[in-house]
Amino acid sequence: MSTIISIVSYPFLPAKTGGQKGIALFYKYFSKYCRLICISTKKNETSLATYEIINTLPNSRLRYINLFLFFPIYKQLKKQKATHLLLEHPYFGWLAILLKKASGVKLIAHSHNIEFQRWKTLKKWWWPIMAGYEKRLHRNADYNFFKTEEDKSAAISIFGLKEENCAVITYGIEWNNIPTSIERQACRTKLLQQHVINSDTTIFLFNGSLDYYPNLQALKTIVEKINPLLLKGNFNYKIIICGKGLPHYMNELKEYADKNIIYTGFVEDIGIYFKGADVFINPVTEGGGIQTKLVEALGYNLNVVSTHKGAIGIPPETASGKMKVVEDNDWESFASAMRNENNSTDIPETFFKYFYWQNIAEKAKRVIGL
Question: Fewer CB in a 10 Å sphere around the end CB: N or C, the chain?
Fold first, then answer.
């Protein structure tokens, strides 16, 4: 069995955010096909992993320019007789390139989005530097994994990559069947009781880490632009907002409590909300990569209303009518789509073939020839 050593530059266990889940769950399934050893920072809970984790990277931000990290990782590559080095995100690109050249391993660059494009949309001045840095990493990699077809195509064009060295290894879900009607009704009843909602109310859901800028901007769009449009009509609804990291200046959305908005904060079991809601809304217009919460919502058979930007990474054939896509910043149309969303069909089997973690891990195995 091949040995793969990965580098994850930040804590990801326990996995709570979409990015953390993307790594933790991919490794959970991918490690069935190889001996996986993950080198990461000192704050991970190793008991949560089914593979070996070496918590050796320092927590200091200076770790990204720490030249001395080369030596212990190089020793591990040799000691473990590793065949591949898997790098999550581009920030340790310089280190991965040096390790590849020194040890002769195959390098896999796992991109979670085109990072320089994300920084560009967020108006960070250093995005051109990141563009050059990412290009160097991906051109030195033997295999390049991307989360979406859009990112893959952009990287091939911008960085001048060979298509045969690139593959879409998307974010996934751990179930491959939709919830039963009994499950959904039970979860809906819980939500109605917990939040004192009338039974004839349409429940909209938005969730995400609210200390992440694109999610925070989407939340502001909900309360400042979309909700005022909904309030104008004769429409019985509630918008439930779930997620940690709400800035203090928003005062936990208390001023919107009488305007059909319910803020829960972080919830331990977000599945209850996905199963009990009627429609998931995703008014994201910034950032990059796939919206992990959108994949989960569709996997729970929820109808979805999303912006075009927010729907990137979801092939239309996998959603098959379950997702209405509205042009970015057209909030009149977005609110209208919310009012009129009543699709009663189920998410198709093609969705699970594409987004089920077991299938994703098998594809990764095939791509690198394990």
Answer: N
